[in-house]
Design brief:
peptidyl-prolyl cis-trans isomerase activity, mainly alpha, metal-binding, phosphatase activator activity, two-stranded parallel ribbon, Four Helix Bundle (Hemerythrin (Met), subunit A), single chain, acetylation
């Protein structure tokens, strides 16, 4: 993960809703390898990566427990995620021979499939109601696949796309960026971890020991940005159990490490080899830059997968 040039400056979040939008239901557009070039050159790709980098810059050096503005749309998004959480409690796992892929997830997902547009309509104001069907599809794509009962970074990307869409139509604004990560995305992670544990979901498209993590990627990027120029925590400390236990409530990266150690057994270097290697990087800044490069490669792989819906991004 050696440094190879500086990252381009991120695009700012939308601070006002453009005057016109053409709303459409997203459909898959990346079907062959050559289609990837079209995707990489698209405005949707630029918007998505710019959104990720803007939030990365916004949370740099900040703790999860710091003070930040919480707007009404942010609170409505948290309420939406709280509803998804409550539905898990109302849909207990089934008794079945197979340990993984509990079929009760399909019951839970069917409720989301039915109610997604109603949920999204609580967040999007009435004058933008035409956007609801398009934006709701990203929410449905963000929680895993109901046929395979799996979840992975492609689903996580769909939730980031969901939030990006809300920025593009002006529901979320520039001064929401810290709350988008710390309040909304962090709550999303909590709900996804509960889904994974309750229904024993399989990793989607996992690269096994060669992947960064079975389920997530973005909290490692934003979490490493939080730790840039930390007075004493260095990358080598995230493999230290004491350091993780004492600081995980402040930093997304360490919260991810804690979850991994709760879910996996054996030496960390064996079950999470990529992360183990990252712990040898000398600074959080270099970790962050390297993870961004890794994510662009990972995002490219996920976008070309036949499992993922393509981005329309309110074009």
């Amino acid at each position: 993960m050696a440094e190879s040039g500086r990252q381009p400056p991120p695009e700012p979040l939308e601070d006002a809703c453009p005057t016109t939008h053409n709303f459409m239901i997203p459909k898959k557009e990346i079907n062959t390898v050559p289609d990837m070039g079209k995707w990489k050159r698209s405005q949707a790709y630029a918007d998505y990566i710019g959104f990720i980098l803007t939030l990365n810059e916004g949370v740099k050096g900040k703790k999860l427990t710091c003070e930040y503005k919480v707007s009404e749309p942010i609170n409505k998004l948290v309420a939406l995620l709280n509803t998804l959480d409550r539905w898990i409690d109302e849909t207990p796992p089934m008794d079945q021979p197979s340990r993984f892929g509990n079929k009760a997830f399909r019951t839970w997902y069917a409720k989301l499939d039915q109610e997604a547009e109603n949920l999204v309509a609580t967040v999007i104001p009435s004058h933008l109601a035409a956007a609801v069907p398009e934006v709701a599809l990203y929410l449905k794509e963000s929680v895993g696949n109901s046929t395979r009962i799996d979840y992975g970074t492609g689903h996580e990307a769909a939730f980031a796309a969901f939030l990006c869409c809300l920025c593009k139509i002006g529901v979320l604004r520039v001064d929401d960026q810290i709350a988008i990560v710390f309040k909304v995305f962090n709550r999303y992670l909590e709900v996804m971890r509960k889904l994974q544990k309750t229904y024993r979901m399989e990793p989607a498209g996992s690269q096994g020991v060669w992947g960064l993590d079975d389920f997530q990627f973005l909290p490692f990027i934003w979490g490493s940005s939080q730790l840039i120029e930390h007075p004493y925590l260095e990358p080598r400390h995230f493999v230290d159990e004491k350091a993780v236990n004492e600081n995980h409530k402040d930093y997304m990266f360490l919260e991810c490490i804690l979850f991994i150690t709760e879910m996996k057994t054996g030496p960390f270097a064996e079950h999470s080899n990529q992360l183990w290697n990252i712990s040898a990087v000398p600074s959080w800044s270099k970790v962050n830059q390297g993870l961004i490069r890794m994510y662009k490669a990972e995002e490219k792989r996920d976008s070309s997968s036949s499992r993922e819906v393509s981005f329309s991004f309110l074009g």
